[in-house]
Model the fold of this input.
Amino acid sequence: MSGNSLQGWVARNSLVRRATEAAFAAAGRRHLARLGQLAPARCQRRILLGLVHQALATRFGTDHDFRRIRTLEDYRRLVPLYSRAELWREYWQPAYPQLAGATWPGTSAAVQAAHRSALATALALAAHVRPRLRLLSGTLLSLTDEGPSYRTEQAVLTERLPVLIRPYTVSSAEIDVERFASLPVTVLIGPVERLQLLMEKVKQVRGKRCVRDVWPQLSAILYTRRASDGPASWLGKETGDDVLLLEMVGRAEGPIAVEDPSHGLLRLLFDHGVYFEFVPPAQADDPRSPRFGFDEIELGVPYELALTSPAGLWACRLGRTVCLERRDPPLLRFLETAIRKPTAADIRRSAWATEQSLSIQPLPDFHPQSAGTPATPPERSFHSPWSILADRE
Done:
């Protein structure tokens, strides 16, 4: 029996579905219980030192003397704040398109594991708050912003899914309305703009007034949104109170937070392979600005978020401002970025971008390479069900 036929049999067998749902629910309870017992600061330290150890031999690791990093203070002293544009100019552009060894050894397995764990956390939170939800009784429909550019990348998308739910998930970059309208969808995953487009089209195809008439089994929506999108309140109007809405915040380079329905706030994913730092917004333009860990920041005070991840980002500013509301569990909210006047750093970046546009040919659309790091040129970002675009500077 081939792999495809076996997966089809698993997805259609009702007994297997019920057993998988029970196993997934039990695994979700264990997952949340384990997270509840962890110390966020200790987890963050372990993650950072592990990432540093893996990148010792990279050019970035050599330039910043990673062999001397033993503590968080060592990391902050030896590695200044970076922007995506600076990482691109100094490390990724010279090595493009073979990025292995620039800022990361070249494997993306840790990134896929981080996203897989984040999705498992989101589904576990959904099952915890509504234990009667039958998430696997139908199809999990995942809408990606862009599909793989190479056939070999098809497997990369499935790597981001927890193993138990892979047979029940349909993932596509294109909105195949006729096909999707006929599926027994129970969970939707994707960016709000694509979800809105899909919902409008399936209602037109079926001649229905609301999405629940098209997918009566729909139980939950896991959505991402840009900061400029505003609240996704229209989702609740479209689906009703019976459908659980969970926001997920992240980047293709790593997950950041997922909405905890028990508290109505975003829960920081501190044990999902990504290291977070918090920078005072007024000093964020200074590469040597003070940076704080989760256990060092004050409640109710805004900080700009910086990310270190196994995708080759090191102390990289995201342009997003957060405010910690609670430590146990770690709950935060994102603050909308106010429009500000251009700073001297903005003017220098603009001048650099103009110079580059005159001196080099336009770059092709950038996709992860099988032996490279999934990094992107300035002002570009990957799109995936688990990522949002960073605020454009």
Q: What stands out?
A: Confidence is low (pLDDT under 50) at residues 146-154, 338-376, 378-393.
